[in-house]
Amino acid sequence: MKIKSLFFVLLALAVFTACDDDNTINKTLLSVNVNMPDDIKEKNPQITEAEFNLTNVNTGEVITKKVDYFPVSYFEVEDGLYNVDVNATIQYESANQEGEVIASNSVKARAVKDNVEVKDGNLDLPLNFFIQSTSNSFVISEIFFSGTSTPEGKSYRYDKFFEIYNNTNETLYADGLCIGEGAFNTVLTYSQLSPETAKTSKAVLHAIYRIPGSGNEYPIEPGKTLVLADIAKDHTEDNENSFDLSNSNFEWFDDYKNLDVDVPEVANLEKVVSYSRSIWTPHSRGYNAYVIFKLPNSITAETFATENAFDYSYVVHTSTKDITMNRQAWAIDTDDVIDAVECSAPSKFKGLAYSPKLDVGYTFVGETADKKYGHSVKRRVEKTTEDGRIVLMDNNDSSIDFLAGAENPSPGVVGDAE
């Protein structure tokens, strides 16, 4: 029978457990409607197994249940605030042009929803599965946004960099590869965000820099890195607590009133768009998210800025009134994103910048000076192949793919994240 959506009923009997002081524990019947990924919704999808994880936000308790019988499964859930995470294997059919089934395939899928308030005895919860895809291309392997401190204890911010890694067994070309910073701040609440596509099918960006090249000028071999630096120099000359970025592949340079430094020996990235009228630098506390994507150099920066302009609005709640904020940025389709990394601060986190299709978690550095300065986020190693090539983790979940607050940033070196 063709299945377009699948209903899981997570049953919790509405019982009350009396305590000596007559306190009670309320439980709720939670009905979850999980819709199939749009990509395979019309291909007779069937879930063969699934694992539910419900994390109580207040207590940290995790309810986990593997489900292999559908459509009904049961949980006892106490009232509270929960993060819901479902991992599943889905089988679907491939058909030819005549509609004849020619193959059966399976994919890993996931559905997530945070801060679900479970109460009142009954709750209907809609969830949408998305297909989990591991990288078959470049991945962001390290981000250093926090800067270092000098021996005198002053902040030094000129040594920021991004490291990108060829996570495949084939040579890839970096021509047209872009680094983009998300317009949404992960420590702010965006109430009544409009349009909906701003966090569903779009990645909204407010700064984009591109690697030049006609298509085959910058080959990156399997297991090799690409370093994009703010200022591509040996920073130990100015700060002994920093490191050498003179071997970077590219640097981003903003030609504005001599506020930036251009190292002539290292090629510049092309500024495609930027919210900053002066110079751009990644947020030093890591409050933004980052993506890489390809934008052919046949598309000019001017054309991109015009055709990808994106207007959005949200509401800020103050103690006296609600204020509607109207903003402008640029957006690409989530399908065009090669890799995404959400960054934030645990004590301030409010929400992800992108759709869970791109990243379901976030990574971070410490929030105190001793855990922040000189610390980066580094992607962990999944395995090493027989020929010695490192394969980095890519679960589309930065909370497990990355080592948060890694000591000793190492531009151009992977495999040292533990």
Automatic annotation (TrEMBL):
InterPro entries: DUF4876 (IPR032627). Pfam families: DUF4876. Residues 1-20 form the signal peptide. Keywords: Signal. This is DUF4876 domain-containing protein.
